[in-house]
Specification:
alpha/beta; Rossmann fold; 2 domains; four-stranded mixed beta sheet; 10 helices; 17% strand
Length: 226
Amino acid sequence: MTEPWQPDEAMAAFIELDHDRARRRGYPEAVYCEGKTPGQVRSAALAIKASGTTTLFTRADPAHTKSVLSVLPDARYDEDARMLAWPPDPPAPRGGQVLVVAAGTADFGVAREAQLTAVYLGRAADLVTDVGIAGLHRILARLDQLRSARVIVVVAGMDGALPGLVAGLVSAPVIAVPTSVGYGAALGGVAALLTMLNSCSPGVAVVNIDNGYGAGHLAAQIAAPA
């Protein structure tokens, strides 16, 4: 009997990958795995292998990961980011420095997704963690690092106040990422999202809740070589 995650011809018929994206936009294809069956993701991996297209697989759970690695065994998997990259080696970094800042350890997975996305899109990207505003000295101790970045991604849940604080300290643009971290009134990240959208610090752009990939992609574009 065929395993449930194996693709079939009907499944493959629904897949039309954007193999031309890297030439057209300068950045490669990405496959969002959440909501797809493992078989559909495996069919995408087969198409990617046949074309040789550089690809990121985002929001991959263990079953998705098994499917991808059955076709692309050398793909790099990062458990925290829930991301696979193929080919496994990122391009040599060019352009400006990206800095990803995570308010708390609970925000780490989204921050790691943002960092790896920027890295695989060709940027140098560092990650600073656990510098939320509950201990203000932690972010203030990073001022030199913050001010050396071309663009900063700030990932925060709870009240989502960290991006506005960071933007008030630096000249670089800040990309704010609300996370679904927090108690009941955090509303699954909506409270953080609204705080970020209402930031009184200019120069803050906001992506959707938990969208580390979108933030990392935008950061890579902002930090692209002139």
